[in-house]
Amino acid sequence: xxxxxxxxxxxxxxxxxxxxxxxxxxxxxxxxxxxxxxxxxxxxxxxxxxxxxxxxxxxxxxxxxxxxxxxxxxxxxxxxxxxxxxxxxxxxxxxxxxxxxxxxxxxxxxxxxxxxxxxxxxxxxxxxxxxxxxxxxxxxxxxxxxxxxxxxxxxxxxxxxxxxxxxxxxxxxxxxxxxxxxxxxxxxxxxxxxxxxxxxxxxxxxxxxxxxxxxxxxxxxxxxxxxxxxxxxxxxxxxxxxxxxxxxxxxxxxxxxxxxxxxxxxxxxxxxxxxxxxxxxxxxx
Amino acid sequence: xxxxxxxxxxxxxxxxxxxxxxxxxxxxxxxxxxxxxxxxxxxxxxxxxxxxxxxxxxxxxxxxxxxxxxxxxxxxxxxxxxxxxxxxxxxxxxxxxxxxxxxxxxxxxxxxxxxxxxxxxxxxxxxxxxxxxxxxxxxxxxxxxxxxxxxxxxxxxxxxxxxxxxxxxxxxxxxxxxxxxxxxxxxxxxxxxxxxxxxxxxxxxxxxxxxxxxxxxxxxxxxxxxxxxxxxxxxxxxxxxxxxxxxxxxxxxxxxxxxxxxxxxxxxxxxxxxxxxxxxxxxxx
Amino acid sequence: xxxxxxxxxxxxxxxxxxxxxxxxxxxxxxxxxxxxxxxxxxxxxxxxxxxxxxxxxxxxxxxxxxxxxxxxxxxxxxxxxxxxxxxxxxxxxxxxxxxxxxxxxxxxxxxxxxxxxxxxxxxxxxxxxxxxxxxxxxxxxxxxxxxxxxxxxxxxxxxxxxxxxxxxxxxxxxxxxxxxxxxxxxxxxxxxxxxxxxxxxxxxxxxxxxxxxxxxxxxxxxxxxxxxxxxxxxxxxxxxxxxxxxxxxxxxxxxxxxxxxxxxxxxxxxxxxxxxxxxxxxxxx
Amino acid sequence: xxxxxxxxxxxxxxxxxxxxxxxxxxxxxxxxxxxxxxxxxxxxxxxxxxxxxxxxxxxxxxxxxxxxxxxxxxxxxxxxxxxxxxxxxxxxxxxxxxxxxxxxxxxxxxxxxxxxxxxxxxxxxxxxxxxxxxxxxxxxxxxxxxxxxxxxxxxxxxxxxxxxxxxxxxxxxxxxxxxxxxxxxxxxxxxxxxxxxxxxxxxxxxxxxxxxxxxxxxxxxxxxxxxxxxxxxxxxxxxxxxxxxxxxxxxxxxxxxxxxxxxxxxxxxxxxxxxxxxxxxxxxx
Lengths: 285, 285, 285, 285
Known about the structure:
Number of helices of chain A: 12
CATH superfamily of the largest domain in chain A: Voltage-gated potassium channels. Chain C
CATH topology of the largest domain in chain A: Four Helix Bundle (Hemerythrin (Met), subunit A)
CATH class of the largest domain in chain A: Mainly Alpha
Strand order of the largest sheet of chain A: 1-2
Number of strands of chain A: 2
Largest interface: A-B, 53 and 55 residues
Order of helices and strands of chain A: HHHHHHHHHHHHEE
Largest sheet of chain A: 2 strands, antiparallel
Oligomer: homotetramer
Distance between the termini of chain A: 30 Å
Number of domains of chain A: 2
């Protein structure tokens, strides 16, 4: 529901500050973030801030020494976060029917609950409730990753930064070409791994034990990381590896060139108002 | 033979569904891949899919634990693949005379059999038949590489992806400049290896035992991989290595700059002529 | 005070070669560096040269063998440098009131003393005087870093190099976008570190002991440095690491593309308007 | 002396096929390489080929096993190369007076002998003659480097490759900016090394023993080579190193962006003949 319609609705029935109009307002706050709506913006900032604090807490907590100092603090913050995120999740489920695509009361809510962002939101709080259902504790650790993935909500902040927005727009505009570059990289990876596996397997049966093992080596070489945990020792393997490393240079050149051209095009499109040589009027875009 | 001519031929003699017209159709399916020809496109997809499955099988098979689980599965799939690839190879040899450049029955087929792609196709199935000819088993491993090289047929799929096609076109358009960059890299490699060999040989007679050994080090340093299996320890060697590593930065800059300029030129050339929104006439540039 | 006003002032009262006009001249020499003012330029060169010699001395001095050879030399040079830098600092404090923004005798000088460059200047000489105040010697080492930071004064030299000036201008013009790229890099760093921490912590509890430890690994991997002191050993960790290393390629692509576009725009903007060789009129673009 | 003048001179006195005109022709062959002069081009190719063979011989010879197989071959080739290079050097000295800048018989020849290329040529053959003068054998090894440096003569071949020529021209056109980038890199190197030296020296007094030692680490980190022979272990050192490694990304971005812009400008200048909007005539360049 558009903010205009909502305002109009509320104006026409000022007495009906009913549950329905509250739901509309809640949806407005949660889903949109209009530049003029200070409550919505404030809520966004609060949730993003809490997510960031959660991530910081998770990072700091993982250091045993720090956690042992103030375990109560971390536990209390965890409780508070789960409470807020759970409430936010329930409110989102409740108010989602305001959006035209999830309008139907039950089916719409179910469809919303299975949208990627909603699943991540659910997974982020689920591990807290699982013990009450008697689920094994080891699975928890995996679920904390979803807490980190909620960081994606930070993308909303991009709206407030022109530079970040431009970066994301440019990268998005070349999605196809970048995926093609990754595709070429993957083919290169397989070919490189197979070649070096056959060259090195006999000399280093333990390090280059299989092609998947060689693929780890190839990935770390093509990206020029080069940990040094695996490297060829036969002359043939070394010649192949040197050539593969040189092709790795090309893997840096492709995405850089793609993005460079995209940046320039974006700059061009958003900068100069040109004049039509026929009628003399200005043309934008 | 162009599809039009073929269709015309077949139309004019509907009764003559002879061997000749079958050969023409087979050639059509194997060699071309017209957008409208669904059989040809389906065949392409099948062969490329089988090659990909072969590569996956080869990768997975190389892990001893996995192979030992279901050796029969891998052997059966190998048999099936060789059968299909052999048939495909024979059909290609048989039908190649339909192409004007290989028109002569025997000489044409021989010339086709010695074209690079045909050699790779033959090498990919050869190792399977060699044991029957009593050839030593050790040679086999080398030949599996040809199976991987068949992955090049995947390039045909590029036809269906605009982005991938553009990437390959751009890289191809700067072939000369990229080769020149590789040439400069090679000269740099030799000079770097020689300099560091003379600086380090006395201090590390085992690691920097010869200039070819130092070239391995130089390649891994210029590409900024840096495994850490070899590095200079003398002050002179370290100063040289630091300068060489900095030149390595330039080796990334050159191809990236070359491709970046090429991408922009390609973008410029293929820019759709726009229309002035005021007078409707086309504007170029 | 602008040089014009100063010259005018001095001209109007040639007899008053008073302390005030000396202060004006001192401020002129220290703060500005007009192209025509040879004294000011000479002073700049002297101070920058002394800073560079200090840095060289600090580098060479850190080699114990060299320091032990001629300890007196280094100590004498230290004494001389501190004397010059202290005098320079005092003169700057004394003459700063000539600038309109620090015009008030006491408050202005205090505000100047707390400007970043003035603090660095003070910190650079402070460690020499601290022992007289009975401060612990260990703190000294930290303070020498400020001596290195004075190297920033070298930026003044950039004024004399068109190329360096252009580089700094271009980098500055894309400050926002470069910071956005660093922001993306930081998010990537946290996500990568958390994922690999959960994947590797059990297998390598000592190396991947906490998320901050994993962040060190992630930083060294995303920048493709790859020391090899930490690397994943579990299959899941290796797959994640390979994907993270590939994203690291993108981290090189973004700033390069940003700067590439900026260089071209700068080139475009500063392009000299050309003249048509036929009719002599100016052509833009 | 220009080829036209020489030809004219020879034409006017066909009978005088004297020593003087031979010297002119020799100078022509050695110094210039006109596209039409097949003898000069052939001589160029011969010398460059011999230099390349020398480099290959030096590389292969350094492998003890290979040298021990056919020591006589290498020694004979060495003798032949020294003979040719010595003769070439003497002819260059003899004929250099034909060039206007070295016209004076003795002083001109001396000045020519001290030009960089001539010194390299002399140094390349000198080690062979030194034993007859009773000079210590150890010095020899250093001199072989000059043999490698003669590879620079290969640049002459660039004349025959448009792509290579364009690469060198573009890199040359941005010499100033590239040197500025190296200058920034050097300042960064010193600051990084000093910071990490103070952070790590206490924890690793052996590895980070002095600032020059830390500079080796900084160079290998800023260029993202990362051998792994030295790396920080203290939290402060790791934070600094991570930030330095990220700045290292910028060191790749700068030269790439500089060259990218240069390539585009070169493309622009050499491509489109434009029309003057005032008089309508074509403008090139």
